[in-house]
Amino acid sequence: xxxxxxxxxxxxxxxxxxxxxxxxxxxxxxxxxxxxxxxxxxxxxxxxxxxxxxxxxxxxxxxxxxxxxxxxxxxxxxxxxxxxxxxxxxxxxxxxxxxxxxxxxxxxxxxxxxxxxxxxxxxxxxxxxxxxxxxxxxxxxxxxxxxxxxxxxxxxxxxxxxxxxxxxxxxxxxxxxxxxxxxxxxxxxxxxxxxxxxxxxxxxxxxxxxxxxxxxxxxxxxxxxxxxxxxxxxxxxxxxxxxxxxxxxxxxxxxxxxxxxxxxxxxxxxxxxxxxxxxxxxxxxxxxxxxxxxxxxxxxxxxxxxxxxxxxxxxxxxxxxxxxxxxxxxxxxxxxxxxxxxxxxxxxxxxxxxxxxxxxxxxxxxxxxxxxxxxxxxxxxxxxxxxxxxxxxxxxxxxxxxxxxxxxxxxxxxxxxxxx
Amino acid sequence: xxxxxxxxxxxxxxxxxxxxxxxxxxxxxxxxxxxxxxxxxxxxxxxxxxxxxxxxxxxxxxxxxxxxxxxxxxxxxxxxxxxxxxxxxxxxxxxxxxxxxxxxxxxxxxxxxxxxxxxxxxxxxxxxxxxxxxxxxxxxxxxxxxxxxxxxxxxxxxxxxxx
Lengths: 420, 163
Prior knowledge:
The complex is a heterodimer of chains A (420) and B (163).
Chain A: H1 30-33, E1 37-41, E2 53-59, E3 62-69, H2 77-82, H3 86-93, H4 101-116, H5 122-150, H6 155-175, E4 184-185, E5 188-189, H7 197-219, H8 223-229, H9 237-242, H10 247-251, H11 259-262, H12 283-306, H13 332-343, E6 352-359, E7 362-369, E8 378-382, H14 384-390, H15 392-396, H16 401-411, H17 415-419
Antiparallel strand pairs in A: 1-2, 2-3, 4-5, 6-7, 7-8
Chain B: H1 18-28, H2 39-48, E1 71-75, H3 83-92, E2 98-102, H4 103-108, E3 129-131, H5 138-153, H6 157-162
Parallel strand pairs in B: 1-2, 2-3
């Protein structure tokens, strides 16, 4: 019996003219005879969180193989950064992992700072920590809302987005933009905290813990939620490490690995926080770990707020950071620096660096290779979503098709992050 | 179009033209396709969520199937790999169908003038309304949708025949 792929193209687009033979070795031999069904899921599918495409081989309702096909959002960001000066590159990094642009800014700025040996003042480091943790909460809000929505719990989405809007308003105060602020710059941040930011932040850390409790009360005692998450998509600790997982997805399997603790950056070693761990490595534990991370992030923000140092918000090294506008009328040197930095930018040595930080999704790394000139030779990002999507096959094996939706939601993949 | 309030308890006769009645129905319940590409899709979600509440404009119901939707909001950058898929989705939608290009990437390629990105979704779809911004604020998207509704309201029956 011949089998045909399920997608049915219309006349206007090319028909799929390949044969199942092309897939030999990728799917089981049973697919060749038509014993199992090949099903195309995505790239347009409400629960694939963007444009992820999965080729599934199904035995009835059971998944035999699951092959992710990425690249539907490949934007060429890495290549574009090669043609930009170092400071302009920050703008492009915003649009990779679009749920937490601040983390991308951070890893890129850290790489530039390490490459050029640029200093970051204490105040800038603390502001960065506050923003990164706010970004983590905002990103987890989207994850929670969409994950619950996929599993049929509609109302959590509306609650989670209400708090996310509050965070986006705060980002707008700082950077003038809700999402893509490009607030972090090499050597610090774009501008100092505006006066209305800290009162808003105080209000936020006051009401947010109760809201996290609200989210939990909507889901934790819900028998449907428990049934659909516990024991689904289990990953053993060794397997998780072999699959290259990181972040909450890895910690849900019980592996204590958090880059904020292991290799502290931006002064994370000054703050006290716990790394929540799961036990079973299933969808529920990944949910549980992220819910705890909400609370730990609030805890970090509270400490950073209290101990917010004074001083400059950006490095005073005028070879890298343009002088403030007020200096231009008084100092000839300031005019020269201003002109040089806004026309050709600063140069970085012909060396390579790799920096990684803990983004809401896991380890995001930036490999940067300078040329000795004002543009990088190569920029590469190691992104957590890429690793997690490649692990989907192992996680969903022998599960029901409906459980795959929960597994995709639990790894919190962002296709912009994986395809770039 | 004559307005009748059922609250008065006196249901009278409404006289209107067919064009006005149909355009009224089309603008009041325009269901968008549940379709997101990149960053703009997150702002589109924000627009539909609690604070901005797109259901005020009769658009709370996102349909996952192109067969049931009237509007496709192209939210995000369209890559060359995604372009045939997008065109197929548009072809599968039933008339009348509208296209809203959300954000700079979908409208003109945005900052990505490179090998991977289609330089404006109007290369493959007939766009009705462009919304600028990277990403546009929810208010901007709502303005775009209201602009589209204005456009639909002015349609004449000759336009329907042309398709």
